[in-house]
Amino acid sequence: MECGTCRQTKAHSGRLGSDVILNLKVSYLSGCKRGRSQVKYTTYLQFVQHGNEPGFIPATSSCLCQLDAAISNKMDRERSVFNMPYNDSPRHRHKCPPEDSWVEEGIEEGIEEEEEGQEFANEVQEEAEEDQECVYSADEEFGHSLDLRDEEEYEIKEMSDPDETESDMEEMLDFAAESESEHGDALDRNDEERSDIHESATFDKNSRENDGDAPFDETEDSHRSEAWETSCVLQEALDEERKARAALEEALMKEKRTTAQQEAALEHEHEEQHVLAKALKIRRVENNSLCDRIKLMDAALKQKEREHKEVIEKLQRAQHASSSRHQREVSELLVLNAASVTAMRDRLASSSLQEDSLKKDGRIESLHSDVLKLQSHVASKVGVVTSLEERVSKCASDLKAEQTKSSSVQRDYEAAVSQQKKDAAELARLTRGNQHLARENRRLQREEKTLQGDRGACSGLEEAMKKEEARFSRASKKIQSQEKALCELTLALEKSLTAEKLLQSSLKREKKRFEEMVAKQAGPHPVLAQQLREASAYDTLRRESADVMAQLRVLEREHDGERSDLLSLSAGREEMLSRISDGQFTITNLQRLVTELKATGSKVKAREADLEEALEREKTRNSELQRTVDRISSGLHKERRRSEKRRVELQEALKKQVSALEENHSLSSSLQKAQDAVLALQGRERSLDESNKALHRLQQEVTDLRRSHCDINAEYRELLRTHTALRVRHERLSSARGRPDSSPCLVHSKCTC
């Protein structure tokens, strides 16, 4: 009949996997009584081999590992898009048709140069606004990618510790505690039996020393020496295993501290990323306000430009009117002078009136003075025109200088934009490094869990060894006591045999004497009575010797059974030694893993230091970018103020030269840029929609996998229940078939577990 410990260990061994088979095998050997241990041991080996078949161990950890690997691969495939296009708009210059007057041509050239400078400033401003919009879109995409990454990390954390796996682990831990308690009870009983066996063995040794049984004594001594050596080896192995366990615990504590430091560093990095995101949002708000101010200033500049154009048109009309009036006056004066000269010549030719000629001479002199005045007035106007030309040339040179300054500002802005692109790429690289660190942290956590499981297996082996040693000592004590009792019984039996021989010889002598006395038909009655009493004593002694022989046979049978138990215990001890060697091999592997984990921890620390340096560089670059943006904005404000001053200075010299073609071309280029930006934004939206759809599909797959995992676990538990029930039933049937001739006393002694 099989004990309850064996049935329970066989019923629950499938749930624990290959790490707990060693403990279950030890408890099985300690729980079974003597007499039927060999048959049950072979059936248990078959059960263990069946339990280690592929697919029989629960697939909870493997499914979770596959899910973690799929999610980490998906996170690696997810990349943030930092596209910041910078389209440098070309400059378009159009020459205006020349006027008739060279003064007007100079003024028109100055106006053209001023308008070109204004258009170039407007184009630079438009490009700055477009780049700022691209920066805003990149900031929004970066924030969206950060949100997506946080959501994925939260989902991974939820998937890494599901409720089903926690319930399975709790059930496994409860069963391990129950099996350990049962192992302790079985090992205590085994220690008692071993102490009894040891006592009986010592008693048998003493008795056989007295009897002179030298070969059997040598075999017993060899068995006991082997048992003592194995116990010493087991003790040394236990000490080594304790030391290795202490080293492993220290390594695990160090690993926990390193993982805690890594988690703190990751949290600090997340906080810094959130701070960077907030700073980016603040910069976006500031850039929005700056764009609004730029738009307002642009509108004001356009209004002033319209007013300036109106004033220029008025000045042009007044200039044309004054020039035409002066030309008419000069032509009229020339005609009048010619007429007066001809008349005066006629009158002088007639020489009739000298007084009139004198008057006309005075009039001619006055007209000549008027002509001189007109010439001086024209000369003054020519001087004004030359001064205006000089001012126009000076403004043109200033405009060229401002153009060079604006080109340098544009180059600085392009450098700032390229630096911002590099910073975005560096930030993407840092996010990828953060994801890699998160994956390393998850891998370290899984390795720590495996180390904890190995440590539990080692502790179970140590406890099993202790219990096995106690059981062996009790069995040896019991054997010694039984051997001592056997020696006493053999001595009593020998004494009874010698007494029986003496009685037989005396009986023969008395029979002879009785026959002689019967033959002689003479003899007193007391002698006959004495002989009858001796015959009855002889019968009683013979019956007692028969009882002693029966007891001796029973003791010999018990001694043979205990010897077989001792042999099975020695076989179990050898198997335990092999398990201890396997445990030492696993401990060396674990130590190697600990060293590798330490190396990875140092690498992770170096990576964290690199990341901190990269973050510091990122902060300095952001501050430099902020300074460059401030410098560019201040340069733009100065440029606007200078252009306004020059417009005020050139109000009198500007003319009507509004180029509709240039305006249309600039509008078409801006429209094309806006369309390109819209297309780029649409492409980004499509890519974001595709990534969102892929993420939703991945989440749906994860939920489906989780449901299938739950269904598989439920089916697996149901199969385990049916399998354990069938195995218990099979074992009961096999135990019932295997003991038809056993006595009730022996069955009761074998089933007390």
Question: Would you give an account of this structure?
Answer:
Residues 180-211 have a biased composition (Basic and acidic residues). Residues 111-232 are annotated as: Disordered. Residues 294-321, 427-485, 681-708 form a coiled coil. With 753 residues, the protein is an all-alpha fold. It has one domain (6-89, 104-750). It has helices at 4-16, 21-31, 37-51, 60-77, 102-160, 163-211, 214-350, 354-520, 525-649, 660-738, 744-750. Helix 5 (102-160) packs antiparallel against helix 7. The N and C termini lie close together (11 Å).
> What's the count of strands?
0
Summarize model confidence as the mean pLDDT: 66
Order of helices and strands: HHHHHHHHHHH
The proportion of residues in beta strands is under 5%
- Overall body shape: rod-shaped
Instruction: Report, as a whole number of angstroms, the end-to-end distance.
Output: 11 Å
SS element count, helices: 11
Low-confidence stretches: 1-64, 77-100, 211-216, 739-753
User: How helical, in percent, are the residues?
Assistant: over 70%
SS content category: mainly alpha
What is the number of domains? 1
- Rg: 58 Å
Biggest sheet layout: none
Biased composition (Basic and acidic residues): 180-211
Coiled coil: 294-321, 427-485, 681-708
Region (Disordered): 111-232
Keywords: Coiled coil
